Hints:
globular, disordered N terminus, mainly alpha, 10 helices
Amino acid sequence: MGTGCLDRRLIMGLVALAGVGSTPRVTSGASSAKASSLVDVVLFGIPPVSEWRSTPGRPTDPCVDRYLGSIPPASPLWIMPLPSTPDEALPHRRRYLAEQAVALLGPEARSEAESFAAAVSLRVEWEGTSEGPIEEADSAARYLAGRPGSLLVPFSDLFQAHRLRAAWEAAAAGGGEDRRADLGRRYRESLERARSASNPLVSCIAGALEWQDHVYLGGVGRP
């Protein structure tokens, strides 16, 4: 994966998919429908579920089948329109995040999922550094700190693990040796909580996250 920031690729990918303007072509694995993994679809949002499910060569395994089967026919994930301008990308991400939480946790989690998606920090750009994904992970932790019995806990753990993995990769790529150990520890803690969740979808996606070569910047190994 290249060194451009995830959020910029997300915005460019969404707008490019919508056919708006002369946005540069996106070539990263996270924005390539053919190469995208279940982790990319759930936690990146590119490509959208509506496109990914019919993509030739997409991953096929019990976890993917369970995930696709968990999305109700009337879910906005099947028909959610792509944003037509870069300014619409962030609101789209928030709604997409909420709908993914509902797909994984069930309709009873909708109210909490929408509150979580509205409150969590989502930066427009990460700039190839670890600060952006760290802030997103920290904001999720802060939101759930006073809600230990929340239905969103397993989804938040998964979200935090993904962002902390991205932050570790950015620190590794940028020579941030002083941050890698702490980020790796925090990633492992969040990942293990997600993997041990009683929700089978959260636990299997967490397992897929662990084995994925990279989520943000490639060529730096795994924490």
